[in-house]
Each structure stands twice: as structure tokens, then as C-alpha cells.
Amino acid sequence: MTHRPRILLVDDEVAIQRAVGPLLRARGYELDVAGTGAEALKAFSSLPPDLIILDLGLPDLEGTEVCRQIRLQSPVPIVVLSARGAEADKVNALDLGADDYVTKPFGPEELLARIRVALRRVQSADESEKGQLKAGDLTIDYDRRRVLRGETEIRLTPKEFELLSFLARNHDRVLTHRIILKEIWGSTAVEQPEHLWTLVAQLRKKIEPDAANPRYVLSEPWVGYRFVSETS
Amino acid sequence: MLPSHLRLPIEPRCLAVHAVGGQCLLDLGSTFPLGASPAYDGAVEHQGGSRDVTIGTVGTAAIAVVIAVLRTLQRAPNPTIAALLLLLVILVTATAVRIRVAIAVSVIATLAFNFFLLPPFYTLTLADPQNWVALFVFLVVAVIASQLSAAVRSRAQEAVGRRDELARLFDLSRDVLVITDSHEAISILARSLARRFDLEFVALALPRDHNWDVFEGGARTLALDTRELSAAFAAAQASLEFDAHAGTYAGHRTVTIEGLTVRLVPLRVGTKPTGILAAAGRPVEPGTLDTLAGVVAIAIERAHFLEERKQAELTRQSEALKTTLLASLGHDLRTPLTAIRVAATNVKAPWMTESARVEQSDLILAEAERLTRLFQNILEMARIDAGPIATESRLVHPSEIIAAARSQVEQTLHAHPLDVHIDTDVPVRVDPRLTATAVAHLLENAAQYAPAGTVINVSAGVSNDELRITVHDHGPGIDPADLPHLFERFYRGAAAKTRASGTGMGLWIARGLLAAEQGHIWAENRLDGAEFTIAVPALVTNVPRSVTTSHDTPATHTPR
């Protein structure tokens, strides 16, 4: 890393600020803190961070609204802090372009892991516009529309390849059912997740070493899917 | 009076009478068969008897006058004119009297016609055989005319009776409609039934499992035999037979209890029997009884529906409460738990400086305190929900209550300086625990809504045997739209909904605790913030404080 990544923590709970703040600083991140949506937007435009941790329950603005406004300006990774039971808000934020989420109450390792993955994704995107992605023993060649396991080519149908390349280009990000359906089948299909379930099952049979315990295409229950580029 | 066999209450007889007399009455134990309305009650009927005789006598006299006049004017009067004049007298008489009297007058007129006006005069024999025919025709016409006018009369009476019963039914239906209390509904129904129909005894018997729920109304109470009820109900279930002549469903039964004839009528919704109506006292027509049973059955159904709806509403409310509780608990548990988890990891981390470690452990303590407070709130809420709270009054100085309240919410108050002003020096007799907890909730509320750093004014005073404590913050005040709902459970002001802290429990708990003390709580907007006041009834003693606190009176439990 060339510089210390700057993180903007947006949460109105002083207790969270007081606990998470020292944690992130100690792990080498620069930290800005905002207690309201307005403060967050102000901090974002005055000193753009490398990543935003955004609590969805803010006193002034809806967290999802903050998410939408930031997405209009920048592709900066956004990790959403959500409450269990507020699934709708969480999915909404992801639909609006948030990258990932952590459910309260969370442990420090969980949050740090999400931050690492999100930052890595941005970095790898910076380095590579080279047209292919290596994940484990899987190579996805976007230009030639080929997928290899080791040296062996895996034959995918056009739809399967479309799904895999969409997931892989957004690797380590949670993509909601709605976003995927819209991308692969168009906006008329967003209410028909059964297409997606079938296609994911087919894809897993072909690319996963063990389709019952997938390591590349992971399900985020009730939310969507995530392509994991590196196994921890 | 009607012939005595009319009073037999069994339908087949009744039917026979119906065919003959054009009227069928059921006797429910009364001696007066024509009892559709009070207007036809006994006294009137007695008068009716003697009145008939008088009118009959007048009619007879009129006949005598007619004959005398005819005999005076002509030696041998024209029998046709004589017969027509006599018929006129009979018709006029018959419109006013009963059929028996009318027929008697007809017979007298026939005999007099023969005796005085048909030759040979002054004998009952007739010279011309044709006159026998004339005399016979006269008699028949007279009797038919009497019958017709008597029938008209009794129909008119019947109509009055029906109108009266309709009016009673209408009143009853109105009673039924205004019953909204599902719990008492059936008892109220039995009472209105007795009142509206002037019945001595009314009971509504509803089968439940193998027993009968009996709701009584009326002046008398009778012990109904449940075997009779069961038998009547079983019969009603077994068969449904409409008696077209009587205009009633068959299946009415009579039983005699303590000398009173009680009529048992099945209650039916549609054709399905749902219970038994027992009635005794004033006679009511069987058709009316059936209608009555129908109205009652529908009213009972309605009461059941009301009860079910109430239950459903209660269930819905408690479901809604549960949902709100879970949502609010969810948030209030999650934040401190997250902070504690992260801070506890931070404390263990080797890279922490000593001062950072202290700061993290302070954070853990503060958040644990917040959880404790939440836990207390839940307990207090459960306590209020569980029923009446026992109060434990003792002598206490107001300053102690405020100090206790303050210590309960010390953590929340750290950013708000408190300005306490105590306007009294006398001890008061209240439940210090409940009062202090209520004040603590007010302080917590003020601290949550007023900006950090603003002063919270607390004042206490005693007036009219009442302890008043006021908490005045310098925050934004209460939105007028929120004011009516302020003390509702889980209600959070529109502006507060997105705020992190606050569960909407505090003010509701304060209200609940004060209610146990017969106290009051209210909120007002002042120019510079919101003001909450509590008032607790307190026995004020003028004993100096130094004496009382060292001799605390033993605690007394006053369960309410």
C-alpha cells in the first residue's frame, strides 16, 4: 500500500464511534467520523475517503439516501452497518450501490475483514483492466469468453458466462438478486428470482469443485450473491 | 268473554278455535285470554261483559220501541218494513257487542217479530205458512249480520294487539342494537325482554358443553329444570316443522314451575336451534314468540361476534405491541452490544496505549450501564403489565427522591447539568421508589431530547397534600402533534424516530408507576423547552426532617 487508506465512519451512536474509531486507527487507517447524513456528505466532498462505513439509521437523512447521493458522485466502496430485522433497508442500500454489509451487533474481525475485501477489490480494479481474472485455480478470460480450471476449459452457455463474468467483475461485492436479474435478463425480470436460482445452480455444477459447498459463488441469504476471488 | 276452551294452550285446539273464531290466543298462565295489550287486560274485559249486557238491553228496548211505534201507527204493519227496521237495530247493536249478545238480541227480535207483527198477533203461531219462511230468513240474516260485525270487531282488536306487539318488538330490537358490551350482552337482553313485554319471568338458556348457561330477567326467578331444557332443545334439533295455521314453528313446550306456566321456545338462527327462550307471565301470541326468539337468537349471535371481535382486537394489539417491542429492543440492544464487543477486543489488543485502554473500558462500563437501564425498563414495563403494583409509602424528604432519581440515570445525564430547586422542607408520605423511578424517566427523557450542555431544571414543592416535581429542559419542546400521544407505549415523537436512543418506554412507565400511586403526570411546552410535571398525593407532616428520617415508619403494603 502506498498510502494509509482513509475511512469515513458514519454513525450517530457515540458508543460506536468511540469503540470502532480506535480499532480502525490502530489498524493503520486514517479515520474521519460523521454523526449525521449531512455531515457525511460534507466530509465526503471535502476529503474523499477510500471507503465509507455507513450506518443506515441516521437522525437526519435515510442511510439509503446518503448511499444514493454518494454513488452519484463516486464508486467508493460503501460498507453498510445494518440492524438485523431491517433487511429491507439493507437490500435497498445494496441495490443503490453499497458494496457490502455488516449486521449489528458485529465483532471487530468481521468489520475489518469486510473493509479489507472492499479495499482490495478497488485496488485490483485499479491494477487490472487486462481482461481476465484469476481466482483460485479458475481463470476467467472476458475477452475470449473462456473459463479455465487450471488448463482445462469449462464449457459454459452464453447466459452462464454472462452471469459469471458479471459476478467476477464485481468480485467480493454483494450483488442483490435485483441487480443481477436486471443485468442478465433486463429490468422486466427483476421480480422473477427463480431464473437466477436455476442459472446459479447450473453454473455452480460446472465451476465449483463441490457444488454443494461453493467457494466461488456464495449465497448471501435473502440478499444476493457474492463472487469470492480469494479464499481466506 | 270467549268460550273457555279458547284458553287451552295446545296448538290443535287452538287451530280449531282459529277456524271458528278468527282469533287464536295462547294463554301463558293468565286468566284473561284476550291479553295482547294492557288495554285489553282483565279489568277492561270485566267491564266489557257488563257493557255488552247494557247494550244488549238497549238493543232489546229499541226493538220494543220499533214494535210499539209500528203497532201504534198501523193496525197491521207491513212486515217487510218491520223486518228491515228490526235488522237495522240488530246491526247497530252487533257492531258494539260480542257475538253471543248479538245472537241473543237477534233471537229476541225474531220472537218479537213473530209475536207482535206477524198475524195472528200475540201468538207464536203463524197463519200464513209463507211467514215461516220470512221469519226463518229474518233469523238467519240477523245471525249472519251479528257474526260479521262481531268478526270485524275482533279483527280490529287483534290489529291493535299486533300493533302493540310490533311496537314492543321494535323497542326490543332497538335495545338489542344498542348493546355494545359483549360481556353483559345476554343478561341485558333477558332484562330488556322482560321489560319490553311485561313478562314476569324471562330466561335465555344457552347450551355449553353439557351444561346450560341461563341468563334471567324479570321480577321472578324460577329454577329451570335443565332436563326440560335439554329435551326441548333436542326436540328442536331433531325436527323443524312449520305450523302454517298457527303461523309458528312447532316445538313450543310448556312446563309449570311454582305454579307459573313457563313456555319454552327454541332460539333459532335461520333454522338452526341455538338455545331456549323461556317466558312466563303475560300471554304472547305464538307467532310473536317465534319472532321474539328470532330477534333474541340474532342478538346472541351478535354478542358472540362482538366478543370475538374484542378478543381479535386484543390479540392484534398485543401482536402489534410485541412487534414494536422487538424492533425497539433490537436497536437498543444491538448498539451497546456492538460497542462492548469491539471495545473489549480493543482492550485486549497489544497496540493499545494505557490511556486508550482506560477509555475503552470506560466505554464498556457505560454501555453495560445502558443495557442495565434497558433491562430495568423492560422489567418495569412487565411489572406494570402484570397488574396492580403494590405501593410502599413512607416518610421521605423530596430531596431524597430527586437524589435517588438522579443516581438511577447518572450515565445518561453526564452531558446535562442539573439545577435542583426544592421549595419545601417538610417530609412527605409517598412511595419513594416508584416516585423516584418516575422522576428518573423524566430526567432521562429530558437528557435525550435537549441538546448536550443545556441545563435541566428540577423543582419540587408541596401543596394541597400533593407532592409536585417538575422537570424542565431547554430543548426544542414537544411537537404539538406528538403531545396527545406522549404517554403511549413505544410512542416516539416524529423527530425522535430516527434518533438513536430512546425506546418510547420511559414516559409510559412513568405514567404507569404514578397511576399505582394515584398520581398524575402531564407535559407542557414552555417558551424555552418542555416541562413535565408529576403530582403524587402525599400526607404531609410538619415534623422536622431530622426527627423523621431517623425513625422511619415501617413500610406498609397497600395492594390495589
Give the key terms.
heterodimer, A: 232 residues, alpha/beta, five-stranded parallel sheet, 22% strand, globular, B: 560 residues, alpha+beta, five-stranded antiparallel sheet, five-stranded mixed sheet
Structure commentary:
- The complex is a heterodimer of chains A (232) and B (560).
- Chain A has 232 residues and is of the alpha/beta class.
- Chain A has helices at residues 14-26, 37-46, 63-73, 87-95, 108-127, 158-169, 177-185, 193-207; strands at residues 6-10, 30-34, 51-55, 78-83, 100-104, 132-135, 138-141, 146-149, 152-154, 174-176, 217-220, 224-227.
- Chain A has a five-stranded parallel sheet with strand order 2-1-3-4-5, sandwiched between helices. Chain A has a four-stranded antiparallel sheet with strand order 6-7-8-9, covered by helices on one side. In chain A, strands 10-12-11 form a three-stranded antiparallel sheet.
- In chain A, strand 11 (217-220) and strand 12 (224-227) form a beta hairpin.
- In chain A, helix 3 packs parallel to helix 4 (87-95) and helix 6 packs across helix 8.
- The longest helix of chain A has 20 residues, at 108-127.
- In chain B, 53% of the residues lie in helices and 17% in strands.
- In chain B, the strands form four sheets. Chain B has a five-stranded antiparallel sheet with strand order 2-1-7-6-5, with helices on both faces. Chain B has a five-stranded mixed sheet with strand order 9-11-12-14-13, with helices on one face.
- Chain B has 13 helices and 16 strands.
- Chain B is an alpha+beta fold.
- In chain B, strand 13 and strand 14 form a beta hairpin.
- In chain B, helix 8 (286-348) runs antiparallel to helix 9 (354-386) and helix 9 crosses helix 12.
- Chain B has helices spanning 11-21, 42-73, 79-96, 99-117, 129-178, 185-196, 226-238, 286-348, 354-386, 398-408, 432-449, 506-516, 545-550, and strands spanning 199-208, 211-217, 242-243, 248-249, 253-257, 260-269, 272-281, 391-396, 418-422, 428-430, 456-463, 466-472, 520-526, 529-537, 539-540, 556-558.
- The longest helix of chain B is centred in the middle third of the chain and has 63 residues, at 286-348.
- The chains are: A alpha/beta (232), B alpha+beta (560).
